[in-house]
């Protein structure tokens, strides 16, 4: 451990009641928790078990690894583990990772006594609140036994979200001391900067289209924020583009708008969604390749084109246009661009290969005839083709250069010592660790190294075209009349256009769509031919391919595509390789392609064309992939700590992340004698740099706010868990005593019984049992077959949140639940519970139509009440309102019996269900038959049941008596005629 970590642990253990530690993100949270556990265990090994809650999986793995060689055992208690196994683990004096739901149930049922717990550790204190499960566990433990509670958090910005978040979290966990350890703390800074790694900051310039897209997205975000400010519904200080780069911005806006969400218009709601979409677009611009980015934009155009506000802004056209230019553009066969102003600008052209070249029948004579035909097409029909640009990410080239540089340095350094060992015994592995944002980026960079960046872009481009063709095929299947207009269609990879045809906006988009379909059909044809050739030779090659048959098939297909493209490209002159502006590759890359043409053509004619195409170097013909250093890729989203496992000597931070950078600092401080070189790849003047710098500023501002809150914080002296908020003892006199009789012997009040509520085990995933316990109600956790809460022998409650209510109506589950409650309880209650920080409304006034819709939620509730007249619906605004409603419903009611509530709905050995009101007093089948008789309705069948004990008595009643019971002469006559009708027979 580092010296500042030891100081953190020492300060935390000073107070016997525990404390809250807030550290900068990336600092070793698992190391601090492990040190606290070990010191407490060594002080009193047999004093009880250690409970660890809210631990993420990566932190669990680190704690297990650090406690592997110690005497303290670590167990992960699954939620579905049987109760007797959990009791055995509680008695083992070990460190236990538990879920709060199972722990709360064990504490309420006394399977775990608080006196047998040594300490409670919470590793996500920023999620704690007065209604959270962590606070419920802390209250149950400290109610009779003052054990220490140690809370940790590495999200300082989350501790300042909301009003006095840190103070409220400390009160809910019964903690009186707050320990703040930012990165700029003197002790932490001294330890981390004593032996810093060698840092190289590489600023990569973005391409012109990338800069244009970024500027357009920022303009669209600024326009959306200005529109949102005009609503006067949110705090304008939080609405800045700088804060809009983070995911927490959505939480800031929704937290302010949720209470008034039902009063907002559609435009304001859409603005909030558009800001989230634009933030993703800005992030994906520097993360994904050009083809993937264009594919994502196409999905946005289809899914959000009608509703979105930003798509109709002026800057959105620039986003779509520049994203398209990074991948392809549509040109005439002579190289001139297809534009509305008919300007002819010579550009580099990659024409789609002809059918003759695909089939491998190309000769010199055929090549010359193709050139003649091509010239005739240009002069006569002005064919339109797709020009491939396939702009590669600028960071790919920089990564190539860095790996080359690292390989050269390692080759020079390994001449003296192959595996240098330092004083601390760490062996330099020479591994280069490349840290990317997600798993997809890691896979793509790995393919760039193994196959080549150009081939990776080609594969993505072909997937994009094939997806277009597949979507077009689906549209043609769904469309009955799929006849194309004259003059358009897929003809040998070209779309003919008349020389005098106007290239307006509509015709350009039409030409572009057909040109893409032409290119897609070309690729699809090549793929089919390659598959047919593979199928014909599979009998000769299956013994050689073995397990890699599928991979070899893919390689051969790719090689045939490349070979056909190269052969077709060589039939044209190489003087058209000039690139205008940013429409193509750089001059250096064009020269590399020109140098590679002869060699690739020779390799394409060789028998082993599939091997030659896939053994191309990742970075050109001058670099061999075997000469590169060993590279490991790490996805930052996985949150796995791999530095201690791989022990890299060089780290390339491809996507900068402040958490990973802090981990590098700690890793280097723990290994001061190891040589470590870190490369940071930033796009120059990009939102990536702005987001990284803003994250550092946001963290520093969060700690400054916490320091001010700590100086002004008011924590009660009796913060021990025994005096907790409002309870029944502090409430005004109950309605029971107010409504009771005043004439009593001696005026004595009978002793009040403790209120209790039977709660289903599945309901402990919500916060309502916690709030009921705060009100002083005894919670009895059992597994209920009917209902969620049993308030009395007569009252059963089925609780539904808003989301669960919609799902239950859609699946039909709610009908069955209400039917069972009506059968077994006299007062069935449906509780519809809203969230406290959201609007108390199903829908806004603008969304309510004039007509009655059967799919509307209000219509479904109305039908439910009509079908079950005894059902009572309770509307609750929040959890605390629900607790008050439960207290009111329990007034003048007996306390529920736990054993009876568990048996309700469960058949016994004889098949009899206890407390089945309908089964004991009524014949259910006869009632259903009665309700289906003609003339019997929901309004009169109960009066008929009261008068007649059976269907036989009903058949004997005269029409006059039936009319009195049914309330109508016509209904009585119809029923009597039906009952007296003769049954026809075949005899």
Counted beta strands? 20
What would the average pLDDT be, to the nearest integer? 75
- Integer-rounded radius of gyration: 37 Å
**Separate helix tally:** 39
CATH homologous superfamily designation of the domain at 3-192:
P-loop containing nucleotide triphosphate hydrolases
Helical amount:
40-55%
- Give the CATH level 1 class of the domain at 3-192: Alpha Beta
The proportion of residues in beta strands is 5-15%
Shape: globular
- Helix-and-strand structural type: alpha/beta
Distance between the termini: 99 Å
The CATH architecture of the domain at 3-192 can be given as 3-Layer(aba) Sandwich
With strands numbered from the N-terminus, the spatial order across the biggest sheet is 3-4-2-5-6-1-7
CATH topology of the domain at 3-192: Rossmann fold
Low-confidence stretches: 340-382, 480-507, 538-623, 721-741
Largest sheet: 7 strands, parallel
Subcellular location: Nucleus
Biased composition (Basic residues): 345-358
Protein name: ERCC4 domain-containing protein
Biased composition (Basic and acidic residues): 359-375, 559-577, 585-599
